[in-house]
Design brief:
The chain is of the alpha/beta class and 678 residues long. The chain has 17 helices and 26 strands. The chain binds beta-D-galactopyranose (GAL).
């Protein structure tokens, strides 16, 4: 059974047979099936159930469970258990443990306390993966495998001795000579020059900061290590998989190139979606902030890896662990809303975390569908209703999310921004601003990643692309963008573009560096915007765009470059702040500052890409519109995130997929309500 075969939408849940008396298994599976749950994920933290002491393997526990699953007709996603190494292992081989930057070792008792580079851990992880695979993979109920659990969750930095050693090998392989490494890292600054490979270490506590170029390579190294660990397991699993079974992993976390990881090790990506993180008690949310709707942004990230994907863990209850976090139970309709949010963005499989809330351990407050008593409840009834909806949504399966606007991303810039405060500050404004503006203007957006390890993405399907602040850039990337624009695309850059090379060293070329020809722009001067400079704007034909965080003063130098907007209310008033350059059949806009929401909204409108589906379905701001398309047929998802009813207007007669009725004109969508029209 392939979960993303384009034939159907499927519901699942996460189940922990090791948390319950065996006498409950059959009844649990029966109730799941009765309520439309056809797939369960198991075993991701259950190493001890198979290898209780070193080298002793006992498969009876899961054999018994899989017998029950097979008897009941339940499908299973089986996991490798490497996210939680057993106590016997970490006690005997403490070198498998991860450490803090100051060298203090993380001990047994939490999870994800291992490091990817320990040869002992690699050997033990490979062995348990092999044992799991050779014993269980043939079972008919198993349909696929999850590797580990949430790669780089809990922590995305690794400072064990094995990491130290592996980092040295990584940079040696990358640079070949110390001379090249010293040059790339600019080690002549503050006398950091290395004269022997043994002097090179992963980041360690320093007075002041760790060298930023070293940090960039360190993050690349963490990504490389995580990917290697996943590949180690996937290569083993592939040898045992039944035909048609898949390999995946769950969640998207930082410091790992998930795109490359997926390409080399997985069949598709799964995501863990907890929109109620947005409703944790504590902060006073800004009423216009996206809150749970911001999860659409995360789902767009997943989609950039796998256009059709799965949700391995979808929120189904209140959140909280014993020591942190407290967020409400989903209100009536919200489980459906968040499920449909996932489906709208490309999920054909949605699995709830978890079947029943655990009665012990740190996650007693992280609720599943059922509470501790197992009684039937409102949440289970809602899941059953979702299953009914999934039946009528079959035609949506395999349809691709449709967007005409994209935001380009790349890991060099993402990882540089983590360490470079100027970069981080401008990027934070623009990435949230562009996404929020697009959401509020009902304009679907894709994220497109440029990664040197994968073939260049096809940009031609987008009419407008934002590449807000590519501070790190290369000629290859500039050429790719040049071709996109020449063929008719519209590209929008913000401030600071092209100021660094891929090692994070500032270029000595005139700015914007490798983008100079493409933009037809020059940047004679630039400045961060101080707190006293609150009133600076760029005037774009009468619209005043607020200047926040940073200003590049611009100049049009290309023959086809034209000034569209000028700075006001500052010492550089009258200097260009917005240019357009005509290149081939397309245009490149250079904007001298950042894109907060109001500014991004102006760009979307003026570039003619806002509200593309307005004539089909018009919705108030509180609703998201997402469209999936297959064989020329479009499915329109309307998601009402608000506690109030929303009135929408269908400009054309459409079929309501939930009811099969044909509708046109005004429709009331209830609080947290959803509709799918086809
Ligand atoms: C996920 C994780 C699950 C569970 C859940 C709720 O991140 O994969 O194992 O911990 O969060 O906290």
């Amino acid at each position: 059974m392939n979960l993303i075969d384009g034939e159907k939408l499927t519901l699942g849940t996460c189940y922990y047979p090791e948390h319950w008396p065996e006498t409950m298994w059959e009844e649990d599976l029966r109730r799941m099936l009765e309520n439309g749950i056809e797939v369960i994920r198991i075993a991701e933290f259950a190493w001890n159930k198979v290898e209780p002491t070193e080298g002793t393997f006992t498969f009876d526990f899961f054999d018994r469970f899989l017998d029950v699953a097979e008897k009941m007709g339940m499908k299973v996603i089986f996991c490798t258990p490497t996210a939680t190494p057993p106590a016997w292992l970490t006690e005997k081989y403490p070198e498998v443990l991860n450490a803090r930057i100051d060298g203090v070792i993380y001990r047994h008792g939490g999870r994800r306390h291992y490091n990817y580079n320990s040869p002992v851990y690699q050997e033990k992880a490979a062995l348990i993966t092999e044992r799991f695979a050779e014993h269980f993979a043939h079972r008919p109920c198993i349909i696929g495998w999850q590797i580990d659990n949430e790669i780089n969750c809990e922590t995305d930095v690794f400072y064990s001795q094995s990491d130290d050693k592996a980092f040295r090998a990584f940079v040696k392989e990358k640079y070949g000579t110390l001379h090249a490494l010293n040059d790339a890292w600019g080690t002549v600054f503050w006398n950091q020059t290395y004269s022997d490979w043994s002097e090179i270490h992963i980041p360690r506590p320093t007075v002041n900061n760790v060298n930023i170029h070293l940090l960039l390579d360190y993050t690349r190294f963490v990504s490389h290590s995580a990917r290697g660990f996943v590949k180690l397991q996937s290569d083993i699993l592939r040898r045992y998989l039944k035909p048609g079974d898949f390999i995946t992993t769950n969640g998207i976390f930082s410091n790992v190139d998930n795109h490359a990881m997926n390409a080399e090790s997985l069949d598709f990506m799964m995501y863990d979606s907890y929109p109620n993180f947005a409703n944790m008690t504590g902060g006073t949310p800004d009423p216009r902030s996206l809150r749970d709707r911001n999860w659409s942004r995360h789902l767009a990230e997943v989609r950039s890896i796998s256009p059709i994907f799965g949700i391995m863990e979808q929120q189904s209850g209140a959140n909280g662990q014993t020591h942190s976090g407290m967020a409400p139970t989903p209100k009536p309709g919200q489980i459906t809303l968040w499920t449909m949010q996932s489906v709208a963005h490309g999920a054909d499989y949605v699995s709830y975390f978890r079947w029943r809330t655990c009665t012990f351990g740190t996650e007693i407050y992280w609720h599943g569908i059922l509470d501790y008593s197992s009684r039937d409840n409102r949440r289970l009834r809602e899941v059953k209703e979702i299953h009914k909806k999934f039946q009528s949504l079959k035609p949506v399966a395999g349809a691709h999310y449709e967007a005409k606007v994209a935001v380009i991303k790349d890991f060099d810039n993402i990882w540089n921004a983590q360490e470079d405060v100027w970069h981080r500050t401008i990027e934070a404004v623009s990435s949230q601003g562009i996404y929020a503006a697009a959401q509020h203007a009902h304009t679907p957006v894709d994220f497109v990643y440029l990664t040197d390890e994968l073939p260049a993405p096809d940009l031609s399907r987008y009419s407008v692309i934002f590449y807000p602040h590519p501070m790190l850039a290369s000629k290859t990337r500039a050429d790719l963008l040049q071709r996109y624009v020449e063929n008719g695309g519209t590209l929008v850059f913000g401030c600071r573009s092209g100021i660094k090379d891929l090692n994070g060293r500032c270029v000595m070329d005139l700015l914007p560096g490798v983008f100079r020809e493409l933009t037809g722009a020059d940047v004679p001067e630039y400045t961060p915007v101080g707190p006293e400079d609150k009133h600076i704007v760029v005037d774009w034909e009468g619209e005043k765009l607020k200047v926040t965080v940073f200003s590049d003063e611009l100049d049009a130098i290309g023959e086809q470059a034209e000034v569209l907007g000028w700075y006001e209310n500052c010492y550089y008033a009258g200097t260009p702040g917005l240019l357009v350059n005509r290149v081939g059949k397309g245009s490149v806009y250079s904007f001298g500052t950042t894109f907060p929401e109001e500014t991004a909204a102006v760009f979307l409108r003026r570039l003619g890409v806002a509200e593309p589906y307005r004539n089909v379905v018009e919705v108030p701001e509180c609703c998201e519109i997402a469209v999936r398309e297959k064989d020329g047929h479009r499915f329109y998802f309307v998601l009402n995130y608000s506690a109030e009813p929303a009135e929408i207007v269908l400009g054309e007669a459409k079929t309501d997929l939930y009811t099969g009725e044909t509708v046109q004109g005004r429709v009331q969508v209830e609080p947290y309500g959803t509709r799918v029209y086809g």
